[in-house]
Amino acid sequence: MSPASPPRTARSDAVLVLASAGCALTVLDTNVVGVVLPTIARDLSASFADIEWVVSAYVLCFASLLLPAGTLADRIGRRRLYVIGLLLFAATSVACGVAASAPVLYLARAGQGAAAAFMLAPALSLIGHAHQDAASRARAWAIWGAIMGLTMVLAPLIGGAIATWLGWRWAFHLNLPLCLLLAALSARHIADSRDPQRRPVDVPGVLLFAGAMLAWTWGLIRGPVAGWASAAVLPWLLAAVVLAGAFVVVERGRAQPMLDLRLFRYPAVVGAVIAMFAYAAAVQVMASLLPLLLQNARGDSVLQAALHMLPFALAMLVMPFAGRRLGRRWSAGTLLALGLGVAVLGNLGIALALWRHSDLGLLLAMAVLGSGGGLLNGETQKAIMSVMPAERAGMASGISTTARFSGILLGFATLGAVLASQVRANAAQRFAEAGHAVSPALLERVVVGELSMAADGMGRLARQAYAGGAVYAFVTAAGIALVAMALTGVLMRRPVTARGRAAPSRRR
Questions:
Q1: Helix/strand/coil (H, E, C) string of 97-140?
Q2: Hey, which residues does 502 pair with through a beta bridge?
Q3: In the chain, what is the straight-line distance between the N-terminal and C-terminal CA atoms, in Å?
Q4: Among the listed ranges 180-184, 233-237, 330-334, which one has the minimum average pLDDT value?
Q5: CA of 235: how far to CAs of 128, 207, 218, 222, in Å?
């Protein structure tokens, strides 16, 4: 057998374990940080905008650099870039852990997001290169998916334990020994590989895409405080539109673009990407929003919030198995529409539970939302790959991953903007009715959760105001999933064959 098609060996299994561990580290970091965000805000006296940037700076760099990281890995060597990514992730994690202020923290998080892209892109390529025959590849991706799912379940518990007994800074410091160990083992046990074609990095595409995402995020985060039509916000939103338009023009004119926009002439491709984006924006983003809700609206401790995240996380772990069974009988479009529909019900259920002050209803609705996410988790990636022409599998994978993290970024910024605006309005009304002096500083303390742990009347009012404002955020998430469900059901009626022709639809 030729070197280009290696059989499954102990070395290929080592590649699977080591590369999956690096991917799991990025998932672990993202979800652990979501749990400790309120603790970070209180310790650093951060504003809600600062909290948003701690998440958004990471995801922005991650989403912007995933596609070029894949190209760079093909050029300089997949193992080499993976090890570089691990070392950078270690260094930037230490920088996060020693940050003395919120701006320093989210700048370090931006570097951590870039390092995560340099880890994830080559890690996925290494797994695919080491497992090229059909049976070995299916087994490898099944193991990879199980590791990611288990990490998602354990991450909130790990985050709660770290914040409770060690302090939030150790959520970052613990990455250092893990990354160094993985880098040493990877350098020893993973053989390097490259793409002989050596595709160029699309620098204009990267800069325009990152610029558009940054401008949108900046506008959405600043809007609730400065006003949507203010000089501090409107120019950023207009710049986002201009940069996005320039990105489309540039990519259409390049011979080897970062994103091949010609693929979007197929309705099924558009539908599958919309489903991925909505899944990320309305479900995956809850790994950061739900811990905020549990701590700031219920008054949970960090560890209690981590335990109460289990219904959501366990459903996300279990339901992909049901999705695979349903996928044998249902078309991709039908299954994605079902998952998005369940996500609609879950988000509306959380909003209803908050409105009715039902703790049990909240936990049940979180399980429903996790179930919708579990149905979508594996199927969105598979659907995008299945509706793309077979010869564009590499680009399909890049589009899928970029849609996912773009959805997380814009979903978090959008839902965060709705949350902040409505919590401020709700808090102003409740505190005024209770006879308390209302000031911007007081409202900001409510939004970031500084008053949520107080046992007095102000703490109770703050929790009620946060819950009331959060209702609107979850209704907005339900709306995103509902629109995507309708579009996906229509656009994915006829998937694309390998030759680019529409294939007959497969119905129930």
A1: HCCCCHHHHHHHHHHHHHHHHHHHHHHHHHHHHHCCCHHHHHHH
A2: 496
A3: 41
A4: 330-334
A5: 43, 18, 10, 12
* Residue 1 pLDDT > 50: no
Distance CA 264, CA 252 (A): 12
pLDDT score at 311:
92
Distances (CA, A) of 281 to 277, 407, 416, 420: 6, 5, 11, 17
Round to whole Å and give the CA distance between 165 and 26.
Answer: 22
C-alpha torsion angle, residues 321, 483, 382, 316 (rounded to 10): -30
In the predicted structure, residue 37 carries a pLDDT above the cut 60: yes
The span from the CA of 328 to the CA of 371, in Å, is 19
Question: What is the per-residue pLDDT across 81-139, written as a single tens digit (0 to 9) for each?
Answer: 999 999 999 999 999 999 999 999 989 999 999 999 999 888 887 887 777 676 777 67
3-state secondary structure of 496: strand
Q: Tell which phi-psi region holds residue 190, choosing left (phi > 0), alpha (psi between -120 and 50) or beta.
A: beta
pLDDT single digits (tens) 45-71: 888 888 888 888 898 888 888 878 877
Cβ(396)–Cβ(404) below 8 Å: no
The reported pTM is 0.84
Tokens of residue 310, six digits = 């289990």
Q: What pairs with residue 496 in β-bridges?
A: 502
Nearest to 269 by CA among 488, 67, 485, 483: 488
How many CA atoms within 13 Å lie on the side-chain side of 150? 8
Query: 3-state DSSP helix/strand/coil percent for the chain, to nearest 5?
Result: 80, 0, 20
The span from the CA of 144 to the CA of 127, in Å, is 9
What the block records as the tokens of 436 is 């308390």
Residue reference for tokens 């598979």: 382
Structure tokens, 37: 């965000």
Answer whether 151's CB lies under 8 Å from 142's CB.
no
